[in-house]
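Help! Submission page says 'invalid entity' but I think these are all valid:
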Amino acid sequence: MTEAKPDNYVTTDNVRPTAVVLISGGLDSATTLAIARKEGFACHGLTFDYHQRHRIEIKAAKRVAQQLGVSSHQFVEINLRMFGGSALTDRIEVPKDRDASQMSREIPVTYVPARNTIFFSYALGLSEVIGASNIFIGVNAVDYSGYPDCRPEYIQAFEKMANLATKVGVEGQRLTIHAPLIDMTKTEIIRHGLEMGVDYSLTHSCYDPTRDGNSCGRCDACLLRIRAFESLGMRDPVLPH
Amino acid sequence: MTEAKPDNYVTTDNVRPTAVVLISGGLDSATTLAIARKEGFACHGLTFDYHQRHRIEIKAAKRVAQQLGVSSHQFVEINLRMFGGSALTDRIEVPKDRDASQMSREIPVTYVPARNTIFFSYALGLSEVIGASNIFIGVNAVDYSGYPDCRPEYIQAFEKMANLATKVGVEGQRLTIHAPLIDMTKTEIIRHGLEMGVDYSLTHSCYDPTRDGNSCGRCDACLLRIRAFESLGMRDPVLPH
């Protein structure tokens, strides 16, 4: 992996198709990057520092990209905190100890307004500049905890819009949004990732980590992965001992 | 007008419908803001500092909002320069002295990859936080100089995506994107704006202003407005004497 500089966008690797991969540092995006790599894409990572409460995510994104290999890795600082309105960026309590039915019933306070749309828009700009026709994102609709921008119909609508928005679309080259995890359960995601050699101890998912970066083990994000590892007879490797 | 603070998003004005208005400081967005005001919307301005070469735009946006009146005005700093690829953000020459047929023939180097999509995405986030169901943007397809993200089919696709992306869309309230200038020529835009009292001397459109902020009078943006004012028997008020 090399740190991104505008000059290294043009890779000497002309054989493989090129993709922009959104890397959050979480379990889902790590698995997505592994899938894109396995499918033969030259991957350009894109990670956002959106002044989230759990900024330790960004370090995890670096580790994940390093393990799995990327052609470049771009870090974009954007300030969503000004919009407020979410427990991830604002002074709103992160809900704890919820069961699966509570998670799926409503849009949670950890929802960040228009976050995926903003992330996708930057990925669209980057894909256009580097000439990539593919964007990978690790959203999934099964364990999505009610986030509207993780649903398949949203992804399809974004892809359609993206192909009208850009030079690429106008000039006939088609941009494809890949959301390979969209129909998978968390258990299926982890099983698939382990088969591909993803080291989940490098990832970070917790919405409310301790000061020293440990996962809380009780927020929706922690509980989803803990339960999924348990269903595979394993212990989540990021849990403190 | 008050400078935006998160606290003043909740206006005491509960009678008028609320809109987010993208204000660039140019002629088109000034006219769009005037239209939104005339149609009775409480307008929340959103202006981007995207490290554009012509940053004098931002001062113009403040002046325009002040003249026409807004409920709040938010300034968002985003760095598109990292993507390069445009004469507005990169070290690429701004084309000069082109005629109308040259402007409409191809996507110009002043095109910024995914710019309108990124702007719209932030507007979507802001609209969700303040509870606005309307976004106004001053794009137009007639004099659009080949920008793909100024076409009606793009705007429609964004609106459709936006209604799938957000809480608002999921909960049944419909978000509408207004692009009132989309079918107007520059001459029609100016005529309409003058009728509504827009002071175009406050606006700034030039892609390549001089160090003291004067318009170059030769880039596409300058030429489009100069010719439009001429067709109304007027001199563009921003031209230096």
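Support: the input was valid. A stray whitespace character was the problem, and the output above is from the cleaned input. Chain A touches chain B through 44 residues (CB under 8 Å).
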